[in-house]
Write a structure and sequence with these properties.
153 residues; mainly beta; Lipocalin; 53% strand
């Protein structure tokens, strides 16, 4: 009996490889042909409570969209802040410069996320580009919210 190449007709795209006729996807990709970036399943609007140094606790809706270039990155449209998944539920907000109340500032933070709920917190480090967020840092913005809308293409 001859050998069969089970991967002969498999197309696993750029984000996977074939093993015994099945696509094995790289981290942050899914689907039969590894065509679905992980972050696209998390897009949507989240309604909840926000608290910030320039705002008191208030209801707010955040719109979360997937990065087209980084499969584990999401962007918050309202603040132009991005965050990356470290695991499938733990978020890291790398130091990045955004505009807050008309001034450029560096923010960094952490969060947790699942399909229906998001918790975020970040601190405003002013113009310090060496921002390092840790448990000892007092957050200047927090948000906790529930999914209200799933974005459909």
């Amino acid at each position: 009996m001859g050998c069969q190449n089970l991967c002969k007709n498999a197309d696993c795209g750029d984000a996977g490889y074939c093993h015994e006729g099945e696509c094995i996807c790289e981290k942050w990709y899914a689907g039969d042909a590894c065509e679905i970036p992980f972050n696209t399943t998390f897009e949507g609007a989240f309604e909840g409570k926000a608290n910030g140094s320039s705002r008191s606790i208030a209801s707010m809706t955040l719109h979360v969209v997937a990065s087209k270039d980084v499969p584990n990155r999401l962007q918050i449209e309202e603040f132009d802040v991005y965050f990356d998944f470290e695991t499938d539920s733990t978020l890291i907000i790398e130091p990045q410069t955004i505009e807050v109340d008309g001034r450029a500032t560096v923010v960094a933070g952490i969060g947790n996320y699942n399909l229906d709920h998001i918790d975020l917190e970040w601190a405003d480090f002013g113009s310090h580009s060496s921002a390092n967020y840790s448990e000892s840092v007092i957050p200047t913005f927090t948000f906790s919210g529930e999914r209200v809308l799933v974005v459909q293409d």
